[in-house]
Amino acid sequence: MNAKANALINDRINLTERIERYQSTLLPQSVARTEAVERDIRTTRRSLVMLSQHQSQS
What we know:
This protein is mainly alpha-helical.
């Protein structure tokens, strides 16, 4: 019984540490990458619109 309780406590500690690591490191990195990709998409879209408008005026 004591061994099982200790195992559960260790599991909880490990999971808590993993969640903290995810929230402090992995999540902000993922958000930053997503924002960078979204910026690139907007830039590419603007470039394509400008190119399309230029071609239609020619």
